[in-house]
């Protein structure tokens, strides 16, 4: 039985005011916050934002931010830097001074609206780190709508140069790139596969000359198979050659699966996509409820658990944090939330705890837009890794979790940005038409090695750069501010 992880005591200690916020946000109202504060922001040209990646580049810190496609009201926004209408793509922002982020460049993506356009996913590797990269190049891997994966030289982030394009796809999504080996797990839609999203594994150690290793997915998704098609891939996270594991998350808001894969067997095993060959690298699966999916599968391995310090066995545990994705506005589905799986015994993973924002703490189902989890930060930098996790929770903003005891995760802070004149409406069908409301839609979050937290908004409200305050800083071991 899963615990209710946000106790009354924790609410009093960490949530500040116990008053319930009004469900309607208004322009000009202050943000809602506890133990987190705003450092700086950028409107990202009022483009709907997805994945932020923060890269330490020389003596600068650069944020590369992916975007969804345009909207019905504004299908092709104007770039104020050029005066031209440009399909949503990739924003490049200098965040060296987080209080004064500087927008450097918008790189257009695929023309189209919502999930059918833009350039949602961004990863960045230095050429000096990649085994066969040009040491003078910084490589940005991004999606191009659903059509392709692209690699750009962003050594001069204000003037990107295209290097490589891997096209001919029917969809893309949340890829992973190992900078030390060059192995990339590209979420793709190969035309002959029976699912919208699967994995294409590439050797991108020399990004100018990509080498395909194999296609991979669940048996039943491969070309020529019959019967029911297993739920589609959302994204993988690899622990590289040292950890020798890849954690794949399937499903979005239903029928989720955590799949644990032997990385070496995936890379060197038989490549033809037969059912046996697809099963060969799999160590185990953890099927989830029909109510929930697996958007992000974030490994936190060899975690010391203070509660178990005196126990003969099991003092440390291997944990995977699984984050679902809310899809429907105004709570029109089962609650999507955060789950913690103990995978110490890999062949028998088990759920051990969960976390959600209490709906009543902000009347979030009434605010408009999505309420529920979407994603977590994915940086494994020591500043937060295995200590704190940050969860994008749509109209409940970003939530800071103390995960040092993954059996009892607890919220220690949150930040819900203020809406602006650019914040887009979210609608639901009602008798006689539709009902629309304007609310924050915090979609993704990332952190950097300095400890700053970056959140981006799906409803065009832009980028917010945050830092922890008060007791939450002590959880991460940060000095008082």
Kindly report the CATH topology.
Answer: Methylamine Dehydrogenase, Chain H
At the fourth CATH level, what is the homologous superfamily? YVTN repeat-like/Quinoprotein amine dehydrogenase
Structural class assignment: mainly beta
What's the shape? globular
Q: Kindly state the percentage of residues in helix.
A: under 10%
State the low-pLDDT regions, or none: 1-20
Strand order of the largest sheet: 1-29-28-27-26
Strand content: 35-45%
Tally of helical runs: 5
Highest-level CATH class: Mainly Beta
In the CATH hierarchy, what is the architecture at level 2? 7 Propeller
Sheet bearing the most strands, described?
A: 5 strands, antiparallel
Taking Cα atoms only, what radius of gyration do you get, to the nearest Å? Answer: 21 Å
Textual characterization of the structure:
The protein has a single domain (32-476), classed as YVTN repeat-like/Quinoprotein amine dehydrogenase (Methylamine Dehydrogenase, Chain H, 7 Propeller), CATH 2.130.10. It is 6% helix and 41% strand. It has helices at residues 8-14, 240-243, 263-268, 275-279, 471-476, and strands at residues 32-34, 36-42, 49-57, 60-68, 78-79, 84-85, 90-94, 102-107, 118-119, 122-126, 138-144, 148-153, 161-166, 176-177, 183-188, 198-203, 211-216, 233-238, 245-250, 257-262, 282-287, 296-304, 316-323, 338-342, 350-355, 371-376, 388-394, 398-402, 410-416, 425-430, 433-438, 442-447, 453-457, 463-468. The protein starts with 7 loop residues before the first helix and ends in a 5-residue tail after the last helix. The model is unreliable at 1-20 (pLDDT under 50). It comes from Bradyrhizobium manausense. Residues 1-22 form the signal peptide. Keywords: Signal.
